[in-house]
Design a protein that fits this description.
Helix content of chain B: 25-40%
Largest sheet of chain A: none
CATH topology of the largest domain in chain B: Rossmann fold
Structural class of chain B: alpha/beta
Order of helices and strands of chain B: HEHEHEHEEHEHEHEHEHEHEEEE
Radius of gyration of chain A: 21 Å
Structural class of chain A: mainly alpha
Strand order of the largest sheet of chain B: 2-1-3-4-5-13
Shape of chain B: globular
Subcellular location (chain A): Cell membrane
CATH topology of chain A: ABC transporter involved in vitamin B12 uptake, BtuC
Oligomer: heterodimer
CATH architecture of the largest domain in chain B: 3-Layer(aba) Sandwich
Number of domains of chain B: 2
Distance between the termini of chain A: 19 Å
GO molecular function (chain A): transmembrane transporter activity
Membrane topology (chain A): Multi-pass membrane protein
Number of helices of chain A: 14
Keywords (chain A): Cell inner membrane, Cell membrane, Membrane, Transmembrane, Transmembrane helix, Transport
Strand content of chain A: under 5%
Distance between the termini of chain B: 73 Å
Number of strands of chain A: 0
Pfam families (chain A): BPD_transp_2
Chain lengths: 340, 353
């Protein structure tokens, strides 16, 4: 962690705030899992854990690349529409008689291309990512309807749909956990242990300073959008096979959940701050809270209210934390100006 | 560097080409069908103490609230426990989570109105493997994925009634449009097919022309703005048929506030409580629906009969659904409630749902 030291006290301060937020959200998640296992019937079973993994898979995968993008200070609102469009394209190719083994990588490539369009508009033309990806959110969803219309493609082969729901051998570990862990580790290492990751933080904290420091901010962001698109393509494949239904409205509205967990995980919407472990914990927390409330026969209305409140807390708490620290520092200035 | 990039690019493309030569394509794999190897005992008693769960397309929909009231009454009569639960949005993926939860809780009878005919199948399979009897009502899934389906009416009868009501109100002349639920809604699409076929084949509808089908997704606001869009896009529109309770209410609200009130006929499927004010103010002349309370009640009795071994889902089996009377299981394990009821200014005050 010698590199963080070089970037000065501001970043270190941020890192410290975050470390606590990260730890807090992980602690809250762990605490919730323990309490729920004890107090909610059927919650702490291997079977239920499997359901939770299946439910969180699409959110978690999209949140991985979303974390990288939000940390650079940008956003990608088009991810759920990309899931829908790649799913719809899968359906069209399947109807066209293509082999599923070819369709799946093509869907991921299509996702990458759709992400590249976002990247091009944001970095090439310098447009605000919020505006660009709101546009492609509508555009990609619209194209999904153009591709597949009002129909659903549902005759996916059993071995493939079965894999998405299945478990590894005799164990209770769901198959989808394998790509989940793999991709989470890749993104985690990329963000926290490589020069690329340091560039991502630098670009988010201060893009001007970052480019003076020799970081190709535009190119970096472009490739992050490509990665986000490819990830959405992969989720499109998983979603279609899990529900064995390719429809133009697949995953509609999921982008909000993804952004919510990224913020709940402690990533700053203004960029430059954030860490992946917190985001992973936030995904687990959100999905298992919903699962536990359903198991506890809590009504849907209450469930929505609880989820909403959780997210408001997520946005308020880190800011409140920073404000608290500032106040404390003003009260107890030490000799060298640092907080205790 | 360039050559390396080229290799990097061509390798996956080559792999793709190879994969498409030897891969899995459409039509290779299909299986399943309704089970039913157990034998029925028509003289068995209804079991008491069963747990019933009703899972609607979405909660906070008056139609399903009414079904739930009927099912709950039946469950109470049969000495069982009843729960009404479901997602707040009408999407297939959110229903899956609820099915998983219910099958973990080992619910005896699941009464389901499906948002997608296929997406729920693997979850339903697991639930059935755990001993849950799956009865769909209102909107079916693939017959291989459930035990029985309780149909509100014959698809043909709904489509024909809707068309007949519209024709009566516009003297069977002019442009008509349909405001439906979601684009994948199983039963709405079946009725639309019936209406399209009848328009094409029945000479008494020769002067009526279906100009548009739009989807309000069973959301009030979307249905409202789709109605607005229809009237803008088709200035000569004479009638709107909305085969969904959410759609017809939103369309009636729009019409009642514009100059189209009384000019453009609106009919479809609605609940009397939702539509009463629009019938009274002259926006709507006549609409139809079956009694959703009776539908829910029949679904619960059907589930109880299957869970008690009185029926297995084989064609021709007979069971008694309390005060609703005797019902016979039809082909594909379908039980049908009866013909739709028409509501107009004269009879609407006799109904409260």
């Amino acid at each position: 962690m010698t590199d963080t030291a070089k970037t000065g006290p501001r970043l270190r301060e941020a890192a410290r705030t975050l470390a606590t937020w990260d730890a807090a959200i992980i602690a809250v998640t762990a605490g919730f899992l323990i309490v729920a296992s004890v107090s909610v019937e059927h919650f702490g079973t291997a079977r239920n854990a499997g359901y939770i993994v299946l439910d969180l898979a699409p959110i978690l995968l999209l949140a991985l690349t979303m974390t990288l993008i939000v940390t650079t200070g940008e956003i990608d609102l088009s991810v759920a529409s990309t899931v829908g469009l790649t799913g719809a394209a899968m359906g069209a190719m399947w109807n066209g008689g293509m082999a599923l083994e070819a369709i799946m990588p093509l869907a991921v490539l299509l996702g990458a291309a759709l992400g590249a369009v976002n990247g091009l508009f944001v970095t090439g033309f310098g447009l605000p990512s919020l505006a660009v990806t709101i546009g492609t959110l509508a555009l990609y969803r619209g194209l999904a309807y153009v591709v597949l219309g009002d129909t659903a493609v549902a005759d996916w082969p059993r071995p493939f749909t079965g894999w998405t729901l299945g478990r590894i051998g005799e164990s209770a570990v769901p198959n989808v956990l394998v790509p989940l862990v793999l991709l989470a580790v890749i993104c985690g290492v990329l963000l926290h242990a490589t020069p690329v990751g340091r560039s991502i933080y630098a670009a988010g904290a201060n893009p001007v300073a970052a480019s003076y420091a020799g970081i190709a901010v535009g190119r970096l962001k472009f490739w992050l959008y490509v990665a986000s698109g490819a990830m959405a393509g992969l989720v499109g494949v998983l979603w279609t096979l899990r529900y064995s239904s390719a429809r133009a409205d697949n995953a509609a509205g999921l982008e909000l959940t993804v952004i919510a967990v990224v913020l709940l995980g402690g990533v700053s919407i203004f960029g430059g701050k954030g860490a992946l472990p917190g985001v992973l914990a936030a995904v687990v927390l959100l999905v298992s809270v919903q699962n536990a409330l359903r198991l506890a026969h809590v009504s849907t209305e209450a469930l929505t209210v609880v989820t909403g409140s959780l997210l408001i807390v997520a946005v308020l708490a880190p800011n409140a934390l920073v404000a608290l620290r500032t106040a404390l520092r003003r009260r107890r200035p030490t000799a060298n100006g640092r907080t205790a | 560097m360039n050559r390396r990039r080229l290799t990097l690019l061509t390798a996956p493309i080559l792999a793709l080409v190879l994969a498409s030569c030897s891969g899995t394509t459409q039509g290779e794999d299909q299986g399943g069908g309704p089970g039913g190897d157990a034998s029925a005992d028509p003289n068995a008693e209804f079991e008491t103490g069963l747990t019933y769960a009703m899972l609607p397309k979405s909660v906070n929909n008056p139609y399903f609230e009414a079904s739930s009231a009927g099912a709950e009454a039946a469950a109470n009569t049969l000495g069982g426990e009843f729960e009404y639960t479901g997602p707040s949005d009408a999407s297939a993926s959110s229903q899956v989570s609820y099915i998983d939860t219910l099958s973990q809780q080992a619910t005896d009878v699941l009464l389901l109105s499906a948002n997608d005919p296929n997406a729920l199948c693997s979850s339903l399979e697991q639930a059935r493997a755990g001993g849950t009897v799956v009865v769909t009502f209102d909107s079916d899934v693939d017959p291989g994925c459930r035990d029985l389906f309780v149909s509100q009416v014959d698809s043909d009868e709904v489509g024909l009634t809707l068309l007949e009501m519209a024709a009566e109100q516009i003297d069977a002349t002019g442009e008509i449009a349909i405001l439906s639920a979601t684009a994948n809604a199983t039963n709405q699409n079946a009725w639309i097919d019936v209406m399209e076929a009848e328009l094409a084949s029945n000479p008494s509808y020769a002067d009526m022309k279906l100009v548009d089908v739009v989807y309000g997704d069973d959301e009030d606001e979307k249905s409202f703005s789709e109605t607005q869009g229809l009237l803008q896009a088709h200035p000569d529109l004479k009638a709107i048929i909305s085969p969904t309770t959410v759609g017809i209410a939103a369309a009636a609200r729009y019409l009642s506030g514009t100059e189209f009130k009384g000019q453009v006929a609106l009919t479809g499927l609605g609940t009397p409580n939702q539509m009463r004010e629009f019938v009274q103010d002259g926006t709507v002349t006549e609409f139809a629906l079956w009694d959703p309370t009776a539908l829910g009640e029949l679904a619960a009795y059907t589930g109880a009969a299957a869970a008690s071994g009185i029926i297995t889902g084989a064609e021709g089996e007979v069971f008694t659904a309390g005060e609703l009377g005797e019902f016979t299981v039809g082909a594909d394990a379908v039980v049908t409630l009866g013909p739709p009821t028409r509501f107009n200014a004269e009879n609407i005050d006799d109904f409260d749902f």
